[in-house]
Model the fold of this input.
Amino acid sequence: MPGRQLIMTFPVTATSHTLADYRARGGYQTLGKALAMAPQDVTKEVSAAGLLGHGGAAFPVGRKWAVVKLDDGQPHYLCANADEGEPGTFKDRWILEHSPHLLIESMLITAHALQVRHAFVYIRGEFDLPYRRLAGAIEEAYDAGLLGKGILGRPFDCDINVIRGAGSYVCGEASGLLASVEGKRGYPRNRPPRLTVKGLYQRPTVVNNVETLSNVAGIIANGAEAFKKVGTPKCPGTQLVSISGHINRPGVYEVEYGYPLTKFLFEDCGGVTGGKKLKCIVPGGISTKVLTAAECEPLTYDKQSLEGAGSSIGSGGMIVIAEGTCMVRLLQVMLRFYHHESCGQCTPCREGMGWMHRIIDRIVAGEGRPEDIERLIEISKLNDGTTICGMGDAAGYATVGILAKYRDEFEYFIEHKRSRLDGNLEVPSVVPAEAGTQ
Amino acid sequence: MKHLIPEFDRWKARFPAGFESSLVMPCVRRIQEDRGYVADADIDGLVEYLGVPRIQIEEVLSFYTQFRRKPIGRWHIQCCRNVTCSMVSAERLIDHLAKKLGVAPGQTTADGRFTLSTAECLGSCGTAPVVMVNDAYHENMTIAKVDALLEELK
Done:
């Protein structure tokens, strides 16, 4: 494993997700400790640990929590974001499937810190097994007196409800998610007011990613200082990285921040499939800019290093792309996705995604025009910062990132009406032509 | 949907007071599981049970791609075709299924057994390509495995 582990600390078995196994791993011992602490001290500890959000924006968790005023006389809400939908990302699924009680215990500790009576988990609708594992764990927790009223015999009540999404990407955005929890269309909304001021039903609400929350129990158990010893000084802790694509050993890995990127790719994950050379990686979900093999070389896996190279950790969804892959076709798949998922609320995104999708389709059909590349860049710029949520920006980053580094492939495609490579996303030696019939 | 009300009542008990609107998503999903789609009568029933405006339920039904107003085939085959799946043969898999079933994505076979759809990222990229049949994920799919699956579902 790449570095030290905080979450994937046990071997997965058929019963890892159960309460009995979680207790055997020391589970729910931190809850008692947290409940004996003053709520603001829990927040202070999480702030001191320097925990960053793991959902994509890497926002400091303590700063988000500190906005909630404990004595404002209003109900506060907590919502775990399990709407894992960023293409390439499947890390939260690991926690939900194998350690759902870690999430529940961490949510209870957070609920105490923020004085939350009702907490929610919003999980994407397609996740069936993760949902059943989580819902089963919640029932176990109710039966064991760990949820509901008078938890651990203390004057602490908390309910957790699970709401299942129904196939909308924008519901992974915190305000869209809350609209969906309210039983409405998942339209994101403008800030301010921030969600920590006016969130669910206009009450202060904290929305955190599943993995982010799952770090809370460990921070309270071992203290902020112990947490900061893992990772780098500016980026403490670990990241669950879900890696896929042209890679020999795809899957979920817990990577300690600061771990050498190419060592992770070539040693831990076994390198590119079929012995091919690495072309580039999508480091953290398709909304982050691609990094070429040469750019990856000097990097370590942490926020500062990846941002220094013009990209970001994003959601930890890494896609490995082998030499020989057609980037024009790759961008086509990405733009089709963004067009499909635009919620239609903001004009630049609703129209822009359609324009970009049609332009790339035209190029792939051999009908591209010389001005198309500039037009894609122009539309990307038009979207940047002009929409309510970050989806318009994200599609632009992905597009501009690929065009900046692989412009020659697009120019060739437009001029010759065909791919300079074989026009495939599958790399021939990686997936043999007869692979399908094996 | 009337027979589902006892179940809805149990959910309601764990929600804060005044959160009836938050039951729209869970109730619509449960109704669809039960009937296979959401009928006009279900909307009427939900409006009455939750006390939310009818337009809210209509909006939810038209916004979320997983909800449907019409019945589909007995087996709903959804093939992911996003980045990673496309990089490991999803496109050929979809072409194969379309040919084998004799329908294009979005259509249902004449006998009502299968509906073929494409999906955008099912969050299973580590075991791509992935095909979802009703609620279940089938991972690391190949044409041979898809053929075996179809045999099983007939």
Notes: The first helix of chain A runs from residue 19 to 24.
